[in-house]
Design a protein that fits this description.
Blueprint: H1 2-27, H2 58-62, H3 64-87, H4 95-99, H5 112-137
Helix pairs in contact: 3-5
């Protein structure tokens, strides 16, 4: 049933489209070309330019060397912190710490473990300070 309706309507649609096409071509005035329309003489495509990175803080603008130095220090502190934490022993050493005992210095000078713990704390504070300063510089 639908195919019969479409077949009956097809000649009428073709006739009205042909009449509208002739009338619309005759009714169009000759004027300036439509903006954005594709013409036969389109200009060649241009390669887009990459955006420039503009520093937003005073320190990043006027002391770029300082911000890069702080970035290098922060990476150095991060690597040192990883190494120092990997070298340290745990608080629960198992039976080896209880049977063998631990040798502490009698003169008040810190032993190897205490010295390692102190340096780990110093490096951790340096790590935090450099990354806070680095985040405030805007890079």
């Amino acid at each position: 049933m639908i195919s019969q309706l479409l077949a009956a309507a097809a000649p009428a649609v073709k006739a009205s489209a042909a009449a509208a096409g002739v009338a619309s071509k005759a009714a169009l005035p000759a004027g300036p070309p439509i903006k954005g329309a594709v013409s036969a003489t389109a200009p060649p495509l241009q390669v887009p330019v990459a955006p420039q990175i503009v520093p937003h803080t005073w320190l990043a603008t006027h002391a770029g060397w300082l911000t890069h130095t702080i970035a290098g220090l922060s990476i150095l502190f991060a690597l040192l912190l990883i190494i120092l934490l990997a070298v340290q022993t745990t608080k629960q050493e198992g039976l080896s710490g209880t049977i063998g005992g631990r040798v502490e210095s009698a003169y008040g000078r810190p032993g190897g473990e205490e010295l390692l713990k102190r340096w780990t704390g110093i490096v951790a504070v340096g790590f935090v300070i450099t990354f806070v300063i680095l985040s405030l510089t805007g890079i």
